[in-house]
Amino acid sequence: MTRFERALVTGGAGFVGSHLCEELVRSGTAVCCMDNGSTGTPANVQALRDSPLFEYVDHDVSEPFPDVGSVDVVFHLASPASPVDYQRLPVQTLLAGSHGTKNGLDLAVAQGARFLLASTSEVYGDPLEHPQRESYWGNVNPVGPRSVYDEAKRYAEALCAAYGRARLCDIAIARIFNTYGPRMRDADGRMIPTFLGQALRGEPITVAGTGRQTRSICFVTDTVAGLCALAESRERGPVNIGNPDEMTVLSVAERILDLTGSRSPIVHIPAAQDDPQQRCPDIARARSALGWAPRVGADEGLRRTVRWVTERSAAA
Predict the structure, then answer these.
(1) Model pTM?
(2) Which residues are catalytic?
(3) Is the Cα torsion angle 163, 165, 169, 173 positive or negative in sign?
(4) In the list 33, 74, 155, 186, which could disulfide-bond 12, CB 3.0-4.6 Å?
(5) Cα separation of 168 and 165, whole Å?
(6) Between the CA of residue 278 and those of 13, 210, 247, what are the distances in Å?
């Protein structure tokens, strides 16, 4: 296992990125957090601002990087990640996956650093294989409404693999499945913050389609632990990082109603185009190569998330 001295985390003020920055600082790794605030917010890393191990750089990763000092690992998380965000910022999403990935890789090459790409289960599209193994090539619409995100990540994976094959850089690819927890934005359009906000406001819970489509939700601390384990290993990947405990979207809505005590009705709205009908990771590779598996079950993770949302609302 490798102990890193200083990390660059692009997208470090985002939902997952801010938790990763916290974990790295907690473990004694200095962190340069790079973010342009398009979907993240400096408030997510406010608690780290007084740490001598933390530095914040306001920068768009699709532009040439400024001098960030010496780093021995680059975590590339910068990208809009929710349908609301990447459909609002389609070109920026593609540039974060293309130009942003190349800029991060070139920095890693120059500094002899390890480079970890935070890719996504979206590269599998609406899968015809279940559960999804890393060897599956996917079923993706390259020009559909989700394509700006899917194809940005698929290109980013191809670019990382090319740098790795050319022995230009020590690379790793993580395919992150649905992650949730504190700091998800209320209006980012993803399932759990949407359902939570609606339940707590007493509004109807809007389930897209029949609700029988499945998701596998992973609490953010488990996702971060998986990213760190992959970075510290010699594994290139791709490696699925997610929780294989599969459940329907409708059952997630029902659990949130139970945990919040809300009386909101569940209503069905039209399904989104190209919405995956089954999403569940095969994590055998993560278990064997990284010794990693999620620890936080859905009920416990949802309880923690509900508590954070209600405490934040009370303090507002």
Answers:
(1) 0.94
(2) 149
(3) positive
(4) 33
(5) 8
(6) 30, 13, 9
Strand spans (E) along the chain:
6-10, 30-35, 54-58, 73-76, 114-120, 170-176, 179-180, 205-208, 214-216, 218-219, 239-241, 246-248, 266-269
Q: What is the DSSP letter of 310?
A: H
Reduce the DSSP state of residue 245 to 3 states and report it.
Answer: coil
DSSP track, 285-305: HIIIII-----S-HHHHHHHH
Of 211, 285, 315, whose CA–CA distance to 255 is shortest? 211
CB atoms inside a 10 Å sphere around CB 69: 12
d(CA 225, CA 20): 8
Tokens of 227: 């990213």
**Distance separating alpha carbons of residues 263 and 307, to the nearest angstrom:** 18
pLDDT tens digits for the chain (316 residues)? 457 999 999 999 999 999 999 999 999 999 999 999 999 999 999 999 999 999 999 999 999 999 999 999 999 999 999 888 999 999 999 999 999 999 999 999 999 999 999 999 999 999 999 999 999 999 999 999 899 999 999 999 999 999 999 999 999 999 999 999 999 988 788 889 999 999 999 999 999 889 898 899 999 999 999 999 999 999 999 999 999 999 999 999 999 999 999 999 999 998 877 777 888 999 999 999 999 999 999 999 999 999 998 888 776 6
C-alpha distance from residue 13 to each of 249, 261, 307 (Å): 28, 32, 21
**Per-residue burial over 78-99, b = 16 or more CB atoms within 10 Å of its CB, e = otherwise:** bbbbbbbbbeebbebbbbbbbe
Q: Which residue has the tokens 């620890």?
A: 295
Query: Which DSSP state fits 266?
Result: E
> Which CA distances in Å does 292 have to 181, 228, 288?
19, 10, 8
Beta carbons of 100 and 10 less than 8 angstroms apart: yes
Coil/strand/helix, residue 216? strand
Q: What letter does residue 195 receive in the DSSP assignment?
A: H
